[in-house]
Fold:
Amino acid sequence: MDLIRFDAVSVIDRVAHLSSSRFQARIHARADGIWRVLVWHRIEDTDKGSWTVSADDLANLLLKEDAAGWRLSADGADDLCISLAPFTITVGEFASTGLTAQRWKELPRRKDLPNNAPSWDPVGETNDGLPLGCGLTMEIAEPAGRSYFGLGERTGFLDKKGKTWTNWNTDPASRHSENMDPLYQSHPFVMALDNGKSFGLYLDETWRTVFDLGSTHADRSSFHTDGPTFDLYLIPGPDPLDVLRRYAALVGRPPMPPLWALGYHQCRWSYPTDTTIRAIAREYRRRGIPLDALWLDIDYMDAYKVFTFSPTRFPDPEKLLRELKEDGIRTVAIVDPGVKKEAGYEVYENGHVLDMFVRNSRDEELEGEVWPGKTAFPDFTKEKVRGWWGGLHRLYLDVGLDGIWNDMNEPAVFQSPGHTLPTNSRHGERYHAEVHNIYGYLMSRSTFEALSAFRLERRPFVLTRAGFAGIQKYAWVWTGDNASAWEHLEMSIPMILNLGISAVPFSGADVGGFGEHCDGELLARWTWLGAFYPFMRNHAGKGSRRQEPWEFGSRHEDVVRDAIRFRYRLLPFFYTLAEEATRTGWPLLRPLFLHYPDDPKTYTMHDQFLLGRDLLVAPVTRPGQVERMVYLPLGTWFDFWTGHRYDGGCSIIAAAPLERIPLFVRGGACIPMTASADHTSTARWDPLEWVVAPQETFEGSVFEDEGDGNMPGSRRTLRGRIEDSTMTIETTGALPVKVILLGSKPPEVSDAQISERGSEIILTKPASSWKA
Ligand code: MIG
Structure:
């Protein structure tokens, strides 16, 4: 154990250089106000690089020495204070108390190594070769009131303080339970929040990293990497929305998804034949349940060989997909990374000859075992491999597939220690230990880039299980193998919320649960909750009972149909939020604290959430409940269903019959909605209907375009005010539009329809005023 000390600091060319005989550090401020602190063992080799971060201009630095030590100032950033020995840094609320190097030893430089030798020699290995107890650890002081959010996809509730979290992509091999850590994704990012003030911290290391958040010691936290460098970004707030916007700009924002991806999806492991797929499609249309996509799980393939279709079970995929499309149903197929090692199988033979696969510690092609039996694993760290793999997707596009589902890309490997590749397997000159966490990310990158290149006129759609910080640039995320249990319904909420806080706006959990057996009540409640997931897909695993909407009798079928139809009615609002996410990185589903950071009561609230800023959703998470407590933050709120108006800042008891989910609209909001349909078409909303929560002023907007492709979109707005008992409403864009004024006294207008919720008026002019 070595507490790192530096002898000297100087600024050269907008970068502070710190040095000692064994360690180096570089510190700079980006134009966006983010500080980067990079520390490493070696004397040379400063080009650590990054798999995730996008470049920004560097700010001018000013270095001063005062009584407290050294101080770096940069335009647009908080000052960063440094003490050299021991090395500590302080920025705003962030105060490190030391950085230690464990079992540090002098390492050969990469360029001096023989071909294929690893750049980092793990000292001390576990059975499977995982470096043990090496690396660098930074400790920080931990004030009692601070909460932590983020870390991507995690079990447990909302606030991540008080536990130790590991970043090491893991397929738990059976369904995950409430205390399982880590899971499929690694997001070495946290957002700290204390009394309304927030900052973010991103450790840009793909090695195994461990975040101890006030767990071992209540008054300090630590951030550890197994690797030889420590690459930290400090992201200023103070508003949580600012932290998130800056972090998303750092690791990347999502592209605009195709509209159909926001529709409802049905999947099962597996629909074994094209006949089953056709039957499911028919059933959806016959019963009037909206559906945008059917999914093909691993059994569509011939002997689990990727880029093939079973000649007996899916003899004519092109015809099948064409027929589905005529019914407005898209198709997504699963692609696992493992390539069956089989003579005569072209994908394997080409990959083998072209040296596309991961190698073992003896520098031979690595052999693992997954669904197809003996498999080789593409080495996605290489550009030529990403290009080759991407190219293989032409086949799928040619038969008419609409999206790709990447699974098992942690990667998961059967009968192997740690259920993955040995950490001393080789990716060129790197150990698997260094790139394990980025494997799924790079696989999805390869897929995304292929879909973008081959189908210029369409937006790519990729769903992935494994991922790393920044995965949102390439793929949507689902939370893997949950179970048909109320606990899993409940846990999906903080999971998706923390993914959102980690700049992954598009995610969802398997609606109805993957493992075990669903029942009608659970499916009904889960479909209503799923109607608010950014990604809404019913999926169930092998051996579990069927869980399509009609499996549990007509009462539950009706509730499920209503929930899915409600989702379709809300698509204008979802789509508008999706477009916002491409510019801000803000998630669709938001924890309350994101908009109410000054209200500490919201910091642990995981069983109710916001959709955007304007809708508050309070799902039922237990069987038999027909009412529940709902916390309404400060402000005015309207019950979406009854129009009842509430003053917030308190909890209420809301009615929660099985037929609908408790839902509230923020005073001042205008929610764009449309009619339900069997499937999506364009995002030119016709009919358009505004649900308005009136107060002195109210305003909303809706984003419109073709729903796919690259043509620029446009925006319609609705704006209104109430002054001296006169209500004025103005709108842009096509007329007429319908406006539903929740809970308000009806304006004196002849065609106003009065219902229990409020009054409905049809706007036929761009601006109208009435006596309210
Ligand atoms: O070993 O493809 O999480 O959604 O249905 C199981 C079969 C592999 C795991 C995924 C699940 C999928 C299943 N897969």
